[in-house]
Amino acid sequence: MTDTRYARQTVLSHWDQNLLRRAHVIIVGAGALGGFISLGLAALGIGTLTLVDDSMITSDAASPVGVDRFRFLVGASAVSRRAATLALMLGAINPEVSVRSIPLRLRYDAMALSMPACHALIEASGDPVSQRICARYARQKGIPAFMGVAGASGGACAFVRDDENDIVVTAEGTPDIGVCEVIAGAMIEEVRKQLMPLPGDGAAVAGPFSYDLNQQTRFGTTTHPPSTPRLATSFGNVLIIGAGALGTYVALGLALSHGDSISRLTIVDPDIVEETNLNRQVLYHDAVGQPKAVVLARKLKLLQPGLNVMPDVGMVAAGHVEAADLSFLCVDNYAARAQVNQWAVKAGRPFINGGTSPFGGHVEVCAPGHTACLNCRLDVDRLAREQAGRRVRCGDAVEAGIVQTNMLIAGLMVCEAQLAHSAPLASAIEYDARAPARFGLRSARAACDCGQQLVDQKTAQQEMQNDHKPG
Ligand SMILES: [Zn+2]
Fold first, then answer.
1. For an engineered disulfide with 83, which of 35, 53, 365, 428 has Cβ 3.0 to 4.6 Å away?
2. How far is the CA of 364 from the centre of ligand 1 (A)?
3. How many angstroms is it from 378 CA to the middle of ligand 1?
4. pLDDT by residue (tens digit) across 278-300?
């Protein structure tokens, strides 16, 4: 067994990959949410996964499930079962993981007995009957269990506790892949804590948590986030800067849920795929040594044949940002963040920044003239100078990276993108897997001078030009 694949997570203090290798997790529901939970657990290296779902893939072009399109990556037919197709995909992502699928829909308690013994149970089908059966089964067997649900604009997750009555979580509408990534990422981290507790993890999640894009507060504790239709959005020309873990999940969220709203998607990244990327970048399992941007574009094209996607193997340039109606900043260094921020503010182009750590992350929506820029929020110019100095002195240290925080933060970025032009979020979103509340908004920042001055200058210039126009 090779540990190179897991090098970016085993670098974390007290991480025990063998504990995860010996673990068996059951995922009930192989739809969009169950699909993303499974992708993450396979990348993380959970030794055995069992998928419980009896549904068939929908073959129409606009599949409501989205993840049904993974069949194009593994060569499964349109009449396959969802769970079996997903199992093929998971086996490709990580051949070390043993994946089984059981064609079963839980309709009464005795049916749960056909599930094998496991260390954690995840209910992601969205079916209240199945949720109640799983909760009773988990309590009876003393297994930690989570219920999750994702809808068109929000989702929820609840931990099954011994001392409570049945908890049911619901969300309406076609699951948005961005929402699925948020809920899946959060659930994977809670499951990781149950399977492999680490010092500093803090207490298990106290109660249900929910996400709703249409609420100003975004996060809450409801088990029934309100039903709201998906917002009609035109993304225009979109740029993804960085095709690493964040970029992979931003790209999947955009392609699977918003492919029709994108005129052109450009992916810029100078890197090639390395084996140490495979613990979190789930589309690169067969592409070690190839340029990430090219591989990501090729796979997105398979998933969404109508998508106009262009890879660019190299460094991001001012022209990329100026040509994009919206950019996603998915990089791991301050130099690129500082540079892109300057270009975007100067050009008046909105962008969404994401940052992750092994146990948390943050999202900033930067819409020049409407919200604070990234330098005013995070002091990226100074951090870039400091980081450059450190790298000269010590070289690049191996940085830890795990799948769930990247999936979660990318999902939030994709969701916020729908509001970036109409109602850009003034607060930064923060996720801290070790804080009691897990999610929160940092107090809102007013639009900064950096953006506003440039908007004023531009207006003044335009007015001068208009004044000098021959009447
Ligand atoms: Zn600023």
1. 53
2. 12
3. 10
4. 999 999 999 999 999 999 999 99
Please give the biggest Cα pair distance in the chain.
84
Cα of 422 vs centre of ligand 1, distance in Å, is 20
Rounded to an integer, what is the distance from CA 55 to the centroid of its chain?
25
Q: Which residue has the tokens 């991480």?
A: 15
Give the whole-angstrom CA distance, residue 411 versus residue 182.
5
Whole-angstrom distance, CA of residue 42 vs CA of residue 48: 9
Q: What letter represents residue 168's amino acid?
A: V
Query: Which residues are bridge partners to 210 per DSSP?
Result: 156, 220
Ligand 1 centroid vs 350 CA: distance in angstroms?
A: 13
Domains and CATH numbers, the chain: 4-220 (3.40.50.720), 236-452 (3.40.50.720)
CA of 256 from ligand 1 middle (Å) equals 33
**Structural element, H or E, at residue 377:** helix 374-378
Report CA(445)–ligand 1 centroid distance (Å).
Answer: 10
Report pTM: 0.94
What is the distance between the alpha carbons of residues 52 and 31, in angstroms, rounded to a whole number?
Answer: 11
Spacing, Cα 444 to ligand 1 middle (Å) = 14
| Residue 457 alpha carbon to ligand 1 centre in Å | 15
Angle, in degrees to the nearest 10, between helices 32-44 and 177-195:
40
Of 40-54, 165-179, 239-253, where does mean pLDDT reach its minimum?
165-179
Using the mean position of ligand 1's atoms as its centre, give its distance from the Cα of residue 344 in Å.
11
pLDDT at position 162 is: 76
pLDDT in tens, 166-195: 789 999 888 999 999 999 999 999 999 999
Question: Distance, CA 453 to ligand 1 centroid (Å)?
Answer: 10
Instruction: Tell me how far the alpha carbon of residue 459 lies from the centroid of ligand 1, in angstroms.
Output: 18
- Token duo for residue 65: 């499930």
N-to-C CA span, the chain: 78
pLDDT of 62 higher than 70: no
C-alpha of residue 267 to centroid of ligand 1, in Å = 26
Å from CA of 98 to ligand 1 middle: 49
User: What does the block give as tokens for 158?
Assistant: 């609840």
User: Is the distance from CB of 136 to CB of 162 less than 8 angstroms?
Assistant: no
Q: Residue 373 Cα, ligand 1 centroid: separation in angstroms?
A: 4
